[in-house]
């Protein structure tokens, strides 16, 4: 059976910089794949290319075995692929429920809905439910997101992505700005989402976090995948070695 | 750490659905009003009214005077509805006064040429004013959204161009004719003692408020002003929304053009040069942030009444009305200063 989401031979050049150089990637349903690499290794470029945020010079992306092309992020969303960007992309003046449903508002039934009226109670209820399921620290879905703590904002962004990601969830540095407890919550959330059968792709610089949640770790260096390890069988030393090129690992080890 | 321990930690810190606030404290109208930026400025308005009321109860607090004040703000109120939408997107529309003028000029010219003073002529005039208004508004929106020229520059440009067009069409001379039905029914008409023009403005304001606060269109208006990138990422067609929002502002300037014609019986080519700034000041005093993402229709209306009440009050208590502009300017700066601090406090979690 083909993987949930895979890419082969992705290339993208920015001027003289070869950001992606024949890179491969794959993630399966109900699996957490960590994507690691030094700064400039091409992690963010890869995620952008896989989620319709960036055009490719070459390469093929396949979703559940079928070749796909995403011209916009919405094309990816339509297939159940969501991204939590590093900058979270929340509207600070809107509340958590409004952010959760932004662009996907639930409308009132009948004529009122056609006139543009929204079903606010339903959106609030469903948002509250989503936060509860994630065990989040968000206490209110009706205060502006801008007044929340970093961790709460992070939760809102993740909850929004999780709510719409039926198939694949990308998380770009989700724990970078968080404290210990909030990081804990995010890692637990990743496991819960995986256990629902969703493919999770985690980009992180934190090796302990990667080792805790990742089923597989794919290492990028100079725009290509240089190694894949099973999360259970690898170590911080091995990962760092592969990232920096100190080790010369064999592609496809796992 | 094992998964089960992790999940345990998650559950212990997790609020249940019932403890996540979904309506509490924001459910009823009073609390919602209290939470708004504009509430303290409403206090300012109440104080101003109270002071004049105490100083001159027999003249200031009369139905006649209050009606008069309401009538004076009616046309600006129509413009302020559109301006509130535009400013919430973090834009600005300096062209409203000129668009009002050019709409009323085109409309008056055609109505004049039709010769009679009946409702048919008036309705043709209204339709024309609205079409002209939408044209200029959509042009603003197109230049802002597609050509990526900053709104301040775009609308400063169309302010000049639209006024110039109005002057070319008329040779700079006001057209002193408006259908009698318009003047009689709209300009001087009253319903239950309330000026017709005020009732029309009230309807526009209420519809605008519902649109802003209750519909998806309004939600996207806030989203664009709050974080345009995030609005684009979730698939909102930001460019099209911006064109619609500026077109709405132009549409309302067209309506205001007809109302102005009805009220004064003449076009006001030279009389609208400060209209844009007065409307912007009112909207901003009312708590709408020029940085976008924040504001309310209610606040804009409060912001509109402060200058009008001061004007009327100063005249009645015998203070030179020139002090009104001094007071309004000071309130504008104070209002923004206070809002900034409240906002900073909110971000700090205070």
TrEMBL record, chain A:
It holds the Pfam family ABC_tran. GO terms for molecular function: ATP binding. InterPro entries: AAA+_ATPase, ABC_carbohydrate_import_ATPase, ABC_transporter-like_ATP-bd, P-loop_NTPase. Residues 5-247 form the ABC transporter domain. Keywords: ATP-binding, Nucleotide-binding. This is Sugar ABC transporter ATP-binding protein.
TrEMBL record, chain B:
It is found in: Cell membrane. It holds the Pfam family BPD_transp_2. Its main location: membrane. The keyword Transmembrane applies. The keyword Cell inner membrane does not apply. It comes from the Bacteria. The chain crosses the membrane at residues 39-61, 73-102, 122-145, 152-173, 193-212, 242-262, 274-291, 298-316, 322-338. It is a multi-pass membrane protein. Keywords: Cell membrane, Membrane, Transmembrane, Transmembrane helix. InterPro entries: ABC_transp_permease. This is ABC transporter permease. The lineage of its organism: Bacteria, Bacillati, Actinomycetota, Actinomycetes, Micrococcales.
